[in-house]
Design goal:
129 residues, alpha+beta, 6-stranded antiparallel β-barrel, 6 strands, 37% strand
Length: 129
């Protein structure tokens, strides 16, 4: 696996299912490790790999941010070509390349267009899996 910008581990927890509504389901990661380790990775969109507890790897678009009401960033990953249920599973997120800053969009159509571009970027990157 290529050198990582950072590694985040955690259990998959329920989110608001907004990514699923947009057609890009994500695994939301429990942020206790982030808080305990006081991680300082820049918020934004990353290309990376996600390792399941069984050792299987998937390319993934990973989002860190924005901050919530308690001051912690959302951490979620869209696993490319994954089908199945990850709730309560333990994942390891390897962040390989920072793609762009996190930004709000005026509407869902613009957001979906950007997510599609981000996924193309993730797929093109040489992430050995």
């Amino acid at each position: 696996m290529p050198k990582s910008l950072g590694v985040i581990t955690g259990r998959v927890v329920h989110g608001v299912k907004y990514g699923r509504k947009l057609g890009f389901p994500t695994a939301n990661i429990d942020r206790r490790q982030w808080a305990r380790r006081q991680m300082k990775m820049p918020h934004g969109i990353y290309a990376g790999t996600v390792e399941l507890s069984n050792g299987r790897l998937y390319k993934a678009g990973i989002v860190i941010g924005p901050l919530d009401k308690v001051g912690l960033p959302k951490i979620e990953a869209h696993l490319i070509d994954f089908k199945g249920n990850l709730y309560d599973k333990h994942l390891t997120l390897h962040l390989h390349k920072y793609i762009r800053t996190f930004q709000p969009y005026k509407n869902e159509a613009l957001l979906k267009q950007q997510i599609k571009r981000d996924i193309v970027t993730v797929k093109k990157l040489t992430l050995l899996i």
